[in-house]
């Protein structure tokens, strides 16, 4: 099919080329031979009268024209996919659809077991691909590589809709034989203790660290980790302290020799949201899954309350 003398199939090739910036990987991504992808690039260069990708050392880099095209091409393809692939209705019990979610290990540990259990009862044929969070998760939405993001509201993109799934508070966790394990934790003790914090890479830390900086608290950091789950494990046998999501801390009580103490400094409540691409708002499958996420959050809290 052609539009304004452009073979629209070439847009798929262009998207792969601009994403991968490598002919071999782009060809593999859309199941073409390397020679076919090279031919597609030649035709695209002729149509746009631009090199689009140029060799710089051992890698290819996009030209300014290619950079200008990248988001527009991806948006077109996502719109087409949302229109063509969307079904007029979604019947959970009959579906074998694959849902791709980006989640942190906090969400993986606390919420996902309940989501998958509920989904198994209602839609035993559906499949899940749970991926680790990345620095710019909304880009995966825009590239069509993720269906839903589950992230704090302050990290949500303003370009796409979202809704709150749950609210989370923070608390402190210490080894049960630490001097900090008895009595109320004071602000002086908190600030004097060695802390284990989460570092997510590229200058990003856990939300609680941002809150601390906002209120002018400077903690003595003795260890950093990439995982929200691990601080409770890492402080066992030490007098260190970790400020953690409360639901995660409550789960750690079941398997680790730790205790929870209330934070003696202000740590605001976190809102955890689900976000989806603006062109997929009418997708009945995603609407069903968003509703199931809220039910999973309720089931999670019920299980914690019952001590299960």
Automatic annotation (TrEMBL):
Does Transport show up as a keyword for this record? no
Give the signal peptide as a residue range, or say none if absent: none
Out of the domains of life, which is the source?
A: Bacteria
An example of a GO molecular function for this protein is: DNA binding
ATP-binding listed as a keyword: no
Domain HTH lysR-type positions: 6-63
InterPro entries reported for this sequence: LysR-type_TF, LysR_HTH_N, LysR_subst-bd, NodD_PBP2, WH-like_DNA-bd_sf, WH_DNA-bd_sf
**What keywords are assigned to this protein?**
DNA-binding, Transcription, Transcription regulation
The UniProt similarity line reads: Belongs to the LysR transcriptional regulatory family.
Name of the molecule in the record = LysR family transcriptional regulator
What species was this sequence derived from?
Answer: Trinickia terrae
């Amino acid at each position: 099919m052609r539009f304004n003398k452009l073979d629209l199939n070439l847009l798929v090739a262009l998207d792969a080329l601009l994403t991968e910036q490598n002919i071999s990987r782009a060809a593999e991504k859309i199941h073409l031979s390397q020679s076919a992808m090279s031919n597609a690039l030649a035709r695209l260069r002729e149509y746009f009268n631009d090199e689009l990708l140029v060799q710089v050392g051992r890698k290819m880099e996009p030209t300014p024209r290619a950079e200008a095209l990248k988001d527009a091409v991806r948006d077109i393809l996502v719109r087409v996919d949302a229109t063509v692939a969307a079904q007029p209705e979604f019947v959970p019990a009959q579906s074998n659809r694959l849902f791709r979610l980006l989640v942190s290990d906090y969400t993986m540990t606390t919420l996902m077991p309940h989501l998958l259990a509920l989904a198994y009862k209602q839609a035993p044929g559906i499949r899940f691909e749970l991926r680790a969070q990345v620095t710019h998760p909304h880009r995966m939405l825009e590239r069509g590589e993720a269906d839903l993001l589950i992230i704090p509201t302050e990290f949500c993109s303003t370009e796409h809709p979202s809704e709150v799934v749950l609210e989370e508070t923070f608390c402190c966790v210490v080894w049960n034989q630490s001097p900090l394990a008895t009595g109320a934790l004071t602000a002086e003790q908190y600030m004097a203790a060695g802390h284990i914090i989460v570092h997510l890479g590229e200058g990003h830390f856990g939300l609680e660290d941002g809150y601390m900086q906002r209120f002018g608290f400077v903690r003595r950091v003795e260890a950093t980790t990439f995982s929200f789950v691990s601080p409770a494990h890492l402080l066992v046998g030490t007098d260190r302290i970790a400020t953690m999501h409360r639901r995660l801390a409550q789960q750690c009580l079941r398997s680790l020799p730790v205790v929870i103490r209330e934070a003696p400094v202000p740590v605001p409540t976190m809102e955890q949201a689900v976000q989806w691409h603006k062109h997929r708002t009418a997708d009945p499958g995603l609407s069903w899954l968003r509703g199931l996420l809220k039910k999973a959050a309720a089931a999670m809290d019920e299980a914690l309350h019952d001590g299960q």
